[in-house]
Amino acid sequence: MKKMLSLLLVGLMAVSMTGCGKSSSNEDRTLIIGSEKFSQAFLNSEALGNSAYDKNVRDMIYGYETYAVNSNGEFQLNETAIKKVDTKEEKVGDVTNKTYTFTLNDGLKFSDGSEVTADDYLFHIMIAASPEFKENGDSTGEYLYGYADYHNGKSKNFKGLKKIDDKTFSLTIDGTLLPYFWETSFVAVRPDSMKTLAGKDAKLESSDDGVSFVGDMGAAVTKWTTDEMKNPSVSSGPYKFVSYENGQVKLEINENFAGDPRGDKPSIKNIVLKEINSSTDMDTLIKGEIDILNDAIEGDKIQKGLEEKKLQSVNFDRNGYGTFAYKCNFGPTKEAEVRRALNFIIDKDELVKNVTGGYGTTLNSEYSTAQWVYTKAKSDLEKSLKYNYAFSLDKANEQLDQSSYRFEKDGKTPFDAEKAAKGEKDYYRYNSKGEILQINHLGTENNAVTDNLELMLTQNAPKVGIKFTLTRTDFDGLMQNYYFDTQLKESEKIYHTFNLGSNYSDAPDPYYASFSSDYVNTTANAYRIADKKLDALMQDLRHTVATDRDGFLKKWIAYEQYYNELLPMAPLYANTYYCFADKDLEGFAPNSFQSIYQTISALSWK
């Protein structure tokens, strides 16, 4: 299971809404879920981009995970899939490894009726960690014993994996990575049908040296990342993939699904996820053309929905935030002083008011208001942060005067903040090389956050000597420049900042949240930040004993303090999600840690 902490959401939010194809009875009523444009990364991995919209599909077509997150954000054994789990520690040299042995329940089947076996769990790890898939940056299995030798092609055996029988397998955590605060996430894995991806003749061989794959892994990876990525043919979740055509993902009920971690089985027969324009979603809901508006954050939409008597609503703290993201590897945003200055010239209080209608709060570091650590340490944390990023042109100038961009155009004369404040035309900052302080921003179309940032930064940036440009694009254009900029030519890398949104994954480990230098040139580090002190703080944080919550809290505060200074990405606001649904829909109860897509099996029509 890949645990990228940050789930990329384009623009204001992960727009999600559902609707109905009207029929004579609710039994046959289709649920239509609105979405931004899909990237079609529907494979059981986050390595090829972690679009929230693609993940919503994945959460409905893949299941039977060994461990799942409950409504409190805690990992629990999935007793629907797992009959029992045993743990054992074993010393190998000076290191103590830990082995989890899982026994599957009877009756687990894929959507094609084939049996789910130990091979399918082990194969998912084998293909995701394989040398053939290496360039995609998937972290699956890297915490298991023997990963490096297998991943780097030095051994055909993955020593930390073992098949005991068709119903039983074990995963051994590399003791050098223990303790780990979210330990069970290391062995949280979902199956992939080995026969579908690798062919009927493929098999796994297990011995004391681990598990090896017999077959053509290269061909399996090619199939996984092409045909099966865009059109998954076999499902392990509550729904199975039918098609993606004309901007619509069609799903139908998986009759062979044994149940989700709560024991629920789906009852709604057909679901359509349709690419829509989010600007009219609430009106469409009220007209009865759709059934659910999920994760609404704009104040006017929320108020309109609350006043509508035929709707039900649920609200909760978002386990994520809206962001102003930087590229830290080129141009002016390589410098922390520039990044901090940009954060100071965004009036976040005004942004929260304009965008969320007051249903949100500003942030000064990288956290979610839904997290237990923030709830417990809120007061101490805010007092300990070096920077309070309230709007301030003076503080922005202070930062920029400490950057390399502290000169006039000749690269020698000190920049005069008073001239800029008075509006002197084309008076910008330069470095000693004569390079202008220009920030090129990329945002998405039809986006309230983009609109507000354009107004603020177009007005405020010149007052501190920054030349600011803003370009709008569609979802694909933003993905190409944000996630896949390493594939661009140097002359094509022109955007320094982006407005996005991020939601935390199940294990909120910053190492997997685009901040680790280990992933600096992959999609798992889209900010392109490489900082040794940040790396050390993240490692100290994550390698805390799972039961030591007080120790973890102290380390978390230290991490947040340094993050507040380094600022590889500026969290702008946290907000309350409001979800609205037709009153005829039962089981509608998304929460901070479980989306409507993860609890889709609980939904039914009256």
TrEMBL record:
This protein's UniProt keywords: Signal, Transport
Signal peptide limits: 1-21
Pfam family, one: SBP_bac_5
Domain Solute-binding protein family: 97-518
InterPro entries: Peptide/Ni-bd, SBP_5, SBP_5_dom
Record carries keyword Ion transport: no
Family from the record: Belongs to the bacterial solute-binding protein 5 family.
Record protein name field: ABC transporter substrate-binding protein
